[in-house]
Design goal:
The chain is globular and about 110 Å long. α1 crosses α15 (about 540-550), α8 packs antiparallel against α9 (about 280-310) and α26 (about 930-955) runs antiparallel to α27 (about 955-985). The strands form 10 sheets. Strands 1, 24, 25, 26, 27 and 28 form a 6-stranded mixed sheet that branches. Strands 16, 17, 18, 21, 22 and 23 form a 6-stranded mixed sheet that branches. It is an alpha+beta fold.
Length: about 1000
């Protein structure tokens, strides 16, 4: 017999070194973790949301402790019992001789080994459990929905709040039993209680009892799992086209699960009986019977019913269950009260009555005057070029749309208009190399300054044609929107912390704004707001030095007794931190409320456990062509219930976060309000001015329009046939296959008396480019959230966005201009394609066309407006002229830009499918214009664009103005030459 091999031991010095390294690692990890937690606490204390901090921390700690102790303790107990009842004498066999060395190694360290196993397993289990803190809080504070499940008759709250927690408990129960079973088997094997290769009895009596108990508990838990599986049928995806219990689930699988509950219970009893019988034949037979039953009645029988009973007549068999799914899905996505309007039933997309359309257009005094010509997704560079002031400032990639009710400058009457708005933020990424020091980045350039707004339905005429009309802007901020506090310390572009504040009487060091418009002088200020965490004490300074790994907190004179640290400065991040139970819409927008710039955000309560409701991926369904370009993508989490339950605000100066219960009837919000009392304020605390600026959120709207593409059909047979399905069109203005984003417009909906601010989207027929519906959600306070769907006749070929865009770019007069605009010095940029319902006679498409230079500092300017109605296309310098082209003279009188200096009446633009006239001066074979006058005009346009680019690069504003004037003159000359060529082509003898 080979003698046991001794285990190598470490020297005393090695043990000391390893111990010291381990202690240092633990110490550094603990210091880092505690520092992060403390800095988090300071932020919550500053914002007044310590209730959230402590509730979340205590809940995580509770779950960590319970799960850790239960998993580690019970597993260790099972291992201890296996060791405690090990056999005193073991038969001499080769197997036992080979195991002897392991016994000799473990025996002296058994307490350490057992403790280590318990601690490691407990830590893993604790970390896994603490991540489910929201599940526990919802279970503990659950609120009834007042709506019952049609199959089991239980309140929806059981499925949304209780069922997930029961599943969580069951999962941990299985994990503990499996770990205990594995630990017991290994212990019994090593210490001789389980003998796999030794002749004779394989298990000792103690081992058989322990394993029987553990297996019995496991099978008993399986019986509980079968019982819970019955309720899980409300999430079944067996139905091909809907979610929830299907005919097969209810009539085959539900009885099978009930039978398997009793079969598993009998099997568990058989294992427990083995404590006395001590013969595994009976429990083994029961276990085999359970497995066979689960395969036959749990798998095979439902499959047979599905194949031979349901599929041959699925539309009839599934009708009642489809009806359940439709009703539950609409309720889960808050679409039960959609207003469907049969629209334009007496007209067709190809046969428009011009006189009737003209009458409707002239009668429209709400939609046409408010048609938006400025695209907030295009104009960021224009805002930067005209309103940046200094390089340290910037504007986000996507601007925002908001509306203001202000006195009309001519009549004095209050008029509501939509504005393209933005704040002049500190852009941390734009600091030049010599500005990018710790002092400059964190103590000098600390904030932005200013609010900028331009009406969405007008542009500047004349020398600076095509630019937004900035009615509010500049530094200091002036304009028709009064701003008392314009400093922006919290915004979307600020990605660093700032150290602000100074002792009384100290010289201000924070750059605030240029002095008297000078390019060199500047005015400084010292922050005096309520925001920020005091960092005056040495302990606080040391804390932030460790947290940010920055020694200047201890060494720099800029950090003093009066200093504060501003951090977590993005409005979206602040709301997510203050309300971790919310999903926050990816597009915050700034508004001026009571003279202060305030960020407004939308918070969603969601769940993935609403019965019978279709499940979706949040990030995927909220994706469109603009996601990631100025908007934040939502996390790709599974959900099937959503409500816009919270409106949040973040003060741009002091960072104050306020949460308001916008939909206080939402049971999910009520549940979290119980868990976090006082965190969400009642809706009554919102001021009237704040309410006047809330808008329907984009991400929720995108979710709802996706649902409506299928669930607008409520008849089960038609739903199953899928013969009236819609789809979201791709964005026609961008080279992408991403969905067209929804657009905010100020328009009059059919049936309304006046224009309202609303979020809109066109919907196509499935796999076709024809328009099927137009959906809008109101943002007006009096009917906020009302969704209206204009349903177009199914047999009418109304053009969808892609078809309209194609008719624009293939038009005989548009194509030459696109060739001109898309040159070496410039490029054409299509703005958002807006869909506007006009009375009850049809849909008007409006699209701005911008031109921008290709230089580094160039920016887009509005040059043309495209209009489509039915089969008619308008293309002109102004919206009014384009309307005149489509509907006849006088149609553009309602347009707000009809008082701009008009150019000579351009030739009517034929429909794409109309007989093509003689080409108006087509390009020559080398791509140049046909006439010398047109060629000369092109040369002048290119020279003006080059001069504009040079002026922008050098910051010469006077030169930019002159270049723009020259560009406008050259474009006018080109159009005049083009008109002459057209006239010559169509005049006999010409």
């Amino acid at each position: 017999m080979r003698p046991p091999v001794s285990v190598p031991t470490l020297s005393r010095r090695a043990k000391v070194v390893i111990g010291a390294i381990a202690v240092l690692l633990v110490l550094f990890t603990a210091i880092g973790t505690l520092t992060n937690v403390y800095v988090d606490y300071l932020w919550f204390d500053e914002t007044g949301y310590t209730e959230v901090f402590w509730t979340e921390l205590q809940t995580r700690a509770l779950l960590f402790a319970v799960a850790g102790v239960a998993t580690g303790g019970l597993t260790a107990l099972a291992i201890y019992l296996a060791y405690r009842f090990r056999p005193t004498f073991r038969p001499m066999s080769l197997e036992q001789q080979n195991l002897e060395r392991y016994r000799q190694s473990i025996e002296p360290r058994r307490t350490l080994v057992l403790t280590s196993v318990a601690v490691v397993l407990g830590l893993f289990a604790g970390f896994a459990a603490q991540g489910n803190w929201e599940t526990w809080l919802q279970f503990r504070n659950s609120t009834d929905f007042g709506r019952t499940d049609p199959q089991f008759g239980l309140d929806i709250s059981f499925f949304v709040f209780d069922y997930p927690f029961y599943r969580l408990l069951l999962g941990f129960g299985f994990a503990i039993v499996l770990l205990a079973l594995i630990g017991s088997l290994l212990t019994h094997y090593v210490f001789g209680g389980l003998r796999l290769q030794t002749p004779g009895q394989k298990l000792t009596g103690a081992a058989m009892v322990q394993l029987s108990v553990l297996l019995g508990i496991f099978v008993a838990l399986k019986a509980v799992a079968y019982w819970l599986d019955r309720y899980a049928l409300v999430y079944s995806d067996r139905g091909d086209l809907f979610t929830g219990a299907s005919y097969t689930d209810v009539n085959a699988l539900l009885p099978a699960k009930t039978i398997l509950v009793f079969a598993a219970a009998v099997c568990a009893v058989a294992f427990f009986a083995n404590i006395v019988v001590r013969n595994f034949r009976l429990p083994a037979a029961a276990l085999v019977l359970l497995l066979l039953s689960s395969l036959v009645i749990g798998v095979a029988y439902p499959a047979i019913v599905q194949q031979f009973v349901v599929r041959p007549s699925a539309d009839q068999r599934e009708a009642a269950y489809i009806e359940r799914a439709i009703a539950s899905t609409l309720a889960a996505y808050n679409l039960s009260d959609v207003n469907y309007v049969d629209y334009a039933e007496d007209t067709t997309g190809e046969q428009v009555d011009p006189q009737a359309a003209l009458t409707a257009l002239r009668a429209d005094t709400e939609t046409i005057p408010n048609a938006r010509l400025l695209d907030p997704n295009v104009l960021s560079d224009t805002y930067t070029a005209r309103q940046q002031i200094r390089n340290v400032y910037g504007f986000p990639e996507k601007l925002d749309i908001d509306r203001y009710t202000l006195p009309d400058p001519e009549t004095g009457e209050l008029v509501t208009r939509d504005y393209v708005v933005a704040v002049r933020e500190l852009d941390s990424s734009s600091l030049s190399e010599n500005q990018d020091t710790w002092i400059n980045r964190h103590t000098v350039y600390t904030h932005g300054n200013g609010f900028v707004a331009a009406p969405g339905n007008e542009v500047v005429a004349g020398q600076e044609g095509g630019e937004p009309n900035f009615t509010t802007g500049d530094l200091p901020t002036v304009g028709n929107i009064p701003v008392d506090q314009a400093r922006i310390y919290y915004g979307e572009l600020i990605d660093n912390y700032s150290v602000v504040g100074a002792p009384e009487g100290a010289e201000p060091r924070e750059f605030d704004q240029p002095e008297d418009g000078s390019d060199e002088g500047q005015i400084n200020n010292t922050y005096d707001g309520e925001g920020g965490v005091s960092v005056g004490s040495f302990f606080r300074q040391l804390t932030f030095a460790i947290h940010y790994r920055e020694r200047n907190f201890l060494l720099s004179s800029a950090v003093n007794d009066a200093s504060k640290v501003l951090y977590v400065r993005d409005p979206l991040d602040r709301v997510e931190k203050a309300a971790p139970f919310l999903e926050v819409d990816g597009d915050p927008y700034p508004s001026v409320i009571d003279g202060r710039v305030t960020w407004i955000l939308d918070g969603y309560t969601t769940s993935d456990s609403y019965p019978y409701a279709e499940q979706m991926e949040l990030g995927e369904v909220a994706q469109d062509s603009l996601t990631g370009a100025g908007t934040t993508a939502l996390p790709n989490e599974t959900f099937n219930y959503i409500r816009n339950s919270v409106k949040a605000t973040v003060d741009a100066y002091d960072g104050t976060v306020r949460l308001y219960a916008w939909n206080d009837s939402d049971p999910v919000l009520q549940t979290f309000m119980k868990a976090f009392p006082g965190v969400v304020q009642p809706r009554s605390e919102m001021s009237d001015e704040l309410i006047s600026h809330v808008r329907y959120p984009e991400d929720l709207f995108k979710v709802q329009r996706e649902i409506l593409t299928r669930y607008h059909v409520t008849d089960p047979a038609n739903f199953y046939a899928q013969n009236d399905r819609w789809e979201i069109p791709d964005d026609p203005t961008r080279d992408t296959d991403e969905a067209q984003p929804p657009y905010y417009i100020l328009a009059q909906r059919p049936g309304d008396d006046e224009a309202t601010f609303q979020l809109t989207s066109a919907l196509n027929a499935f796999n076709r480019e024809n328009l099927s519906a137009f959906i809008s959600a109101s943002s007006a306070p009096e009917n906020y959230g009302e969704i209206q769907v204009l349903v177009l006749p199914g047999n009418t070929p109304y053009r969808g966005p892609q078809q309209v865009q194609q008719s624009f770019i293939t038009n005989d007069l548009v194509r030459p201009d696109l060739t001109l605009f898309n040159s070496r010095e410039s490029e054409a940029v299509f703005g958002n394609l807006l869909t506007l319902p006009i009375g009850g006679d049809g849909l008007l498409y409006v699209e701005p066309l911008y031109v921008r230079g290709t230089g580094e500092n160039s920016f887009p300017l509005l040059q043309k407006v495209l209009v489509n109605f039915g089969d008619r296309v308008g293309y002109a310098d102004t919206f009014a002229e384009a309307l005149d082209q489509v509907f006849g003279p006088g149609a553009g009188e309602a347009a707000i830009d009809n008082d701009r200096p008009l150019e000579p009446e351009p030739a009517p633009i034929p429909a794409p499918d109309a007989p093509a006239p003689v080409p108006p001066g087509p390009p020559a074979g080398d791509g140049t214009p046909a006439t010398p006058e047109m060629q000369q005009a092109v040369v002048a346009i290119n020279d003006a664009l080059q001069a504009l680019e040079d002026a922008q690069r050098s910051g010469d504003f006077a030169g930019q103005g002159q270049a723009l004037a020259d560009l406008q003159t050259a474009v006018d000359a080109y159009q005049a030459a083009q008109d002459q060529a057209t006239q010559a082509a169509v005049t006999p003898g010409g």
